[in-house]
Structures are given as structure tokens and as C-alpha cells.
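A reminder from the course coordinator: this example appears on the midterm review sheet, so study it carefully.

Given structure:
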């Protein structure tokens, strides 16, 4: 690890020994700087400062290693960590031997070496006097020791210099290689721990400052200990002004002291600051069982609304969009012009729209067009087919659910389609198929503009527009108690009925040309359709409306030879003249016949046979499906 260690040696011999330790232990020399202190000591202690300290700061030292009074002096004058080289009993013994084994020897070092002195006293059979310089590095303790009969002093370089200045023999305690190596390794450990703490502190600072919430924390005296950038913007107070101030002086009507006192959190509270509404949450800070502070987060409600809109915009970008516009709907017949004009008028309002019409007439295209022509055009368009999902699944998809609401519920819950449509449009296709049990919930959503998730306990406000669509006669379903009358009236505020294709045959030529252009991507050679072919298409009843027409055109484009769709090509695809002479399966009276025969106790197969004899083109399975579908609706 590249650690920058600055080593201050009080004497030259220590510099030489330190260099030997670095060399012998393969310590990277470029990461260590060894200097000899030039500071002087007089009767007033260490004088003149340490020029080496300023050099260490300029060099970028991460830790300083020194010993004795020099280490103490440096530690009190810098924020750089200082590791002191420890004095061992062996170091003291070697210095004592230099003193000629004087019986009255004082040991003067700036650290507690009581145990080493006791060991030496017992080993040598003499009394060594410890002169404690821990808090008194001006060496007045040496003068006091002199008055007590001390003949000599062993100690660090500064202690020896002072002893000499007052006439006492001094002998230097030199640090051995073991002490120096241990100090260097301790310095490396100190830097590693400090770097880790700095990284964690920087991470915490970055997280707090990058938060979109204002964050304020107080200690147990209610003074502010944390005040991030967003808090500065919210309260118009700088961090330097706020830190250590009582929170009541910085934040008006704050309840942080109350949370500190009670230990109770306060969630989703509204606080007024100036004229702004602020959403705030407050929590006590606990250390073990003791409350040692409190923290609060703040966010302007207007900002929350902007974030919500941004999230919904992203959902919009993921596919919750309406692709069709009114001008893209093909048709210029009087019937279609009337419908498109009415749709444009409806789009300018925010009221509920009910689109009716046979299957395949383009109800969803008009729903998308109304949305795109409205003021909600940049918000989500969420479409749901009420007939495509079973009742239980439809409810959870529409209204969402909380975690654990039912067996198999997704962890964390799920947002419903109604919530996703917030700010935009919810399109309920085939709403006539919606079960009665869900009709009441959708009615409440329309009336109250709110929703509650399955298993939830809170009301979620929603701002959306409802567009319903059905190919059924809702009035008949209401009369048969299959559809709620109040929901029908709520939906039928702005009715829009789409004419079947057979009632706007003037648009068939335009539709044919549109689909020929659209299908050119299939590398067909077809470029046009003849007038005779268009006349044949116009004479066809089109029970499936534009959806059926699109399928027929695709077959014609793929199967017709040459560049033009001719009359005979259309007749072959439509199986003329047999099919054209039969009454339309979509004739309005055919299903009334089916219902009437059913009341007389006839089965589907017999009903199909009778209708075929009457000239209606209808299959057994179609009758059976209609009867089964009606039976299910009646059961609801």
C-alpha cells in the first residue's frame, strides 16, 4: 500500500537506525521521508517551532512518526496522526549503563513507562525515579527531580538538552530497531484505518448531498449536526450557519425536539414554511436503548409532484401510449366525418366517453385519437380488455395489490393499471364484459377519483379520464340486471357510436388503397385495385367490419398476380356468388331469432339448421357460442 510516512528523528543516530530498518524490511523508501529535527530546547521548553512539520504538510504526509517531546509537540499542532516510538525496558537499560550505574537516576520521557521502571528496579536492585513529562513537556519536572537528589537523567533528546542546561548529566535513551519497526508498522495500520474511515465518511457525505430530500439531524441537545445541500436551498441557510445552532432557530415550527423527547417517528407529515408546503418525515436516532438525536427529511410537495410526473412519463415512454390520431383514421364518408368531428369535440373536454359499435369498427383507434387530441396527450394511455382476463386477475391488474394480499402476490406488491393511468386516460375495452363485482369498484373510481389496492388500507388519489368501449347493447344488459345502471349513466356522458363498414361503403375504396400501401412492406407487386373490384368489395356485408376487411385485403395483396387487384380476384377470395347472396350473419334480427328459438327449448344445432333453411349463413358453433355467452352473463 502506498502510504506516505514522515519520520522525525530527534538525533542523527536514530535517522541512521531508521534507514537500516527500512532497508532490512523492504519498506518502500520513496514512501518514507526521514528528517532530523533542528528544534532547540531552553528553560522554557521546545522553542522555535518545527520547520519539519510544515514540510510534512506540503509533502502530503499521511502519518508522522517521532518520539518523546518532539512527538508530543507535533501532535498538538497538526491534524496529521502522530505515532510515538515507544520506549522499552531494553532501551532504558542501555541508557542507564551509559550513566555508570548511578544510584540516583531519573527517567524523563513523555510517556508512561511505570511498568518498565518497576521491572528494571526489581532486576537491578536499585530505584529508578520516573519523571513524568506526559503533560509537562516544558521539563519543569526535571528541576523538581534535581531538588529531590537526582544525580543524572536518562531520557529523550530534548530532556537531555534541558538537563545539561541546568547542570545535570544526561544520557540519551536511543530507540532500537525493534521499536522503530513496530512504530512504522503501527503507522501503516493507522493510515489504513484512517483511509477506511475517510472513505466511509465521504460515501456518507456523497449520499446525503446527492439526496433529493433535505436532511437535517440534531444531537441530544437539539443542536444541528447535519445539514445537507437541499436543506440549504429549502431553508435559505448555509450549512456553516446551521451547524451547532439550536434547530428551533433555523427551522420554523419544527417538531424534531418533540421526536427527540418522545422517541416516536412521524411519517408523511405536512409542514408549512413561508408559503411552501413541505412533506417531512422525522425519526429518532438510537444508540442501543438510548435516544441520542433525531433526523428529518424534507421535500417540497411541488417537487414530489414533478418527480411523480417524471416517473409517469417514463412509463409513458415504455409503451403506455396512444399511437393513433384522428387524421390517421381512414374515411371521408358523411358518417365518418360526423363521428370524427364529434370525437374532436369530446377530446377537448375531460368527461367520460362511451364508444359503441360492432366488433372491428375501430373503437380503440378512436379512444387513442381522443386521448392524443386532448390536454392529456403527454400522459399515459392505459388500455385494458375487460373480457380477456378472468375476474380475479382483472381486479388485481386494474387496482393493484399490496405485498401478501393473496397467495402468490408479488413481493413488494404491484401498482395497478388505474394508478398507471394517473394524469392520462384509462381505456376499458369491452366494458360490457366486466363482472358485476368489479363494476362497483370502477364506478367508485370514476366518481371519487381514488383507488385502493387489494389488501391495502390507504386511499390513493388518481386523476384520469375514463373511455369505455363495447359492442354490446348496454341498455339491454342493464334491463337484464347484467350491467349496473348507475355505472352505465356514469359512462354514457359522451356517447360516440361508430357506424359499421356496410353503412359507410363510400370509404371502402380509400381503405383498400390504404391497406395496399401498408402491405407494400411484404414485397408485393400489387400497386392498385380496379374500380370493378372495389364495387365487389362494397357489395359485401362485412360482418367483421374493418378488421375483417384488413384480413381480406392482406389475402388479396399476397395472392393476386400482377400489379392490380381485379374483380375476379376479389370474387375468388370472397367465394362469390354463394356468400354474397346469403343474408348477413350480422343482420340485426338474426340474434333475436336465436334468442326466440332458445326460449322455445331448441338446442344450438337445431337453431342453426332452421336459420340455414331460412337462408342465413350461420354455423352451429356460432349459435352455441352466443347461447353460452348469454348464459354466463345471466349467471352474473
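Designed residues:
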Amino acid at each position: 500500500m502506498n502510504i506516505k510516512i514522515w519520520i522525525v528523528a530527534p538525533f542523527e543516530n536514530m535517522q541512521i537506525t531508521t534507514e537500516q530498518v527500512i532497508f532490512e524490511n523492504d519498506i518502500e523508501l520513496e514512501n518514507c521521508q526521514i528528517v532530523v529535527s533542528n528544534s532547540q530546547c531552553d528553560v522554557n521548553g521546545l522553542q522555535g517551532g518545527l520547520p519539519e512539520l510544515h514540510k510534512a504538510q506540503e509533502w502530503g504526509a499521511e502519518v508522522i512518526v517521532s518520539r518523546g517531546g518532539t512527538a508530543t509537540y507535533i501532535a498538538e499542532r497538526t491534524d496529521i496522526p502522530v505515532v510515538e516510538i515507544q520506549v522499552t525496558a531494553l532501551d532504558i537499560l542501555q541508557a542507564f549503563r551509559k550513566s555508570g550505574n548511578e544510584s540516583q537516576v531519573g527517567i524523563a520521557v513523555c510517556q508512561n513507562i511505570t511498568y518498565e521502571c518497576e521491572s528494571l528496579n526489581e532486576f537491578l536492585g536499585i530505584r529508578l525515579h520516573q519523571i513524568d513529562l506526559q503533560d509537562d513537556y516544558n521539563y519543569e519536572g526535571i528541576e523538581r527531580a534535581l531538588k529531590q537528589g537526582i544525580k543524572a537523567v536518562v531520557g529523550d533528546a530534548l530532556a537531555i538538552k534541558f538537563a545539561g542546561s541546568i547542570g545535570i548529566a544526561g544520557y540519551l535513551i536511543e530507540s532500537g530497531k525493534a521499536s522503530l519497526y513496530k512504530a512504522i508498522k503501527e503507522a501503516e495500520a493507522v493510515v489504513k484505518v484512517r483511509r477506511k474511515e475517510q472513505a466511509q465518511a465521504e460515501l456518507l457525505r456523497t449520499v446525503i448531498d446527492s439526496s433529493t430530500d433535505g436532511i437535517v439531524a440534531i444531537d441530544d441537545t437539539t443542536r444541528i449536526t447535519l445539514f445537507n445541500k437541499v436543506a440549504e436551498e429549502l431553508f435559505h441557510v448555509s450549512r456553516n450557519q446551521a451547524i451547532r445552532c439550536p434547530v428551533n432557530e433555523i427551522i420554523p415550527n419544527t417538531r424534531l425536539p418533540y421526536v427527540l423527547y418522545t422517541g416516536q417517528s412521524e411519517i408523511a407529515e405536512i409542514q408549512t414554511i413561508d408559503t411552501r408546503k413541505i412533506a417531512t418525515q422525522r425519526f429518532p436516532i438510537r444508540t442501543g436503548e438510548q435516544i441520542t438525536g433525531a433526523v428529518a427529511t424534507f421535500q417540497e410537495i411541488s417537487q414530489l409532484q414533478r418527480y411523480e410526473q417524471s416517473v409517469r412519463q417514463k412509463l409513458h415512454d415504455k409503451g403506455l401510449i396512444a399511437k393513433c390520431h384522428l387524421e390517421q383514421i381512414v374515411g371521408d364518408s358523411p358518417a365518418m366525418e360526423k363521428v370524427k368531428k364529434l370525437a374532436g369535440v369530446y377530446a377537448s373536454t375531460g368527461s367520460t366517453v362511451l364508444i359503441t359499435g360492432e366488433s372491428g369498427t375501430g373503437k380503440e383507434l378512436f379512444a387513442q385519437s381522443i386521448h392524443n387530441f386532448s390536454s392529456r396527450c403527454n400522459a399515459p394511455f392505459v388500455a385494458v380488455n375487460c373480457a380477456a382476463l378472468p375476474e380475479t386477475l382483472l381486479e388485481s391488474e386494474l387496482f393493484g395489490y399490496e405485498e401478501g394480499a393473496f397467495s402468490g402476490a408479488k413481493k413488494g406488491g404491484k401498482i395497478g393499471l388505474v394508478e398507471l393511468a394517473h394524469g392520462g386516460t384509462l381505456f376499458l375495452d369491452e366494458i360490457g364484459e366486466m363482472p358485476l363485482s368489479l363494476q362497483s369498484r370502477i364506478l367508485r373510481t370514476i366518481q371519487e377519483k381514488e383507488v385502493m389496492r387489494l389488501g391495502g388500507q390507504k386511499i390513493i388519489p388518481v386523476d384520469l379520464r375514463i373511455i369505455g368501449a363495447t359492442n354490446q347493447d348496454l341498455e339491454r344488459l342493464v334491463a337484464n340486471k347484467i350491467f349496473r345502471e348507475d355505472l352505465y349513466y356514469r359512462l354514457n356522458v359522451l356517447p360516440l357510436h361508430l357506424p359499421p363498414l356496410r353503412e359507410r361503403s363510400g370509404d371502402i375504396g380509400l381503405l383498400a388503397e390504404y391497406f395496399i400501401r401498408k402491405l407494400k412492406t411484404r414485397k408485393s407487386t400489387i400497386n392498385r385495385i380496379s374500380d370493378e373490384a372495389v364495387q365487389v368489395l362494397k357489395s359485401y356485408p362485412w360482418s367483421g367490419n374493418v378488421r375483417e376487411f384488413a384480413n381480406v385485403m392482406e389475402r388479396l395483396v399476397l395472392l393476386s398476380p400482377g400489379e392490380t387487384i381485379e374483380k375476379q380476384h376479389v370474387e375468388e377470395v370472397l367465394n362469390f356468388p354463394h356468400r354474397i347472396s346469403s343474408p348477413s350473419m350480422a343482420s340485426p334480427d338474426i340474434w333475436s331469432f336465436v334468442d326466440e328459438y332458445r326460449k322455445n327449448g331448441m338446442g344450438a344445432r337445431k337453431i342453426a339448421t332452421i336459420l340455414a333453411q331460412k337462408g342465413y349463413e350461420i354455423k352451429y358453433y356460432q349459435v352455441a357460442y352466443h347461447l353460452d355467452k348469454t348464459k354466463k352473463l345471466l349467471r352474473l
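The two ends are 76 Å apart (CA to CA). Residues 40-49, 578-586, 632-636 have pLDDT under 50 and may be disordered.
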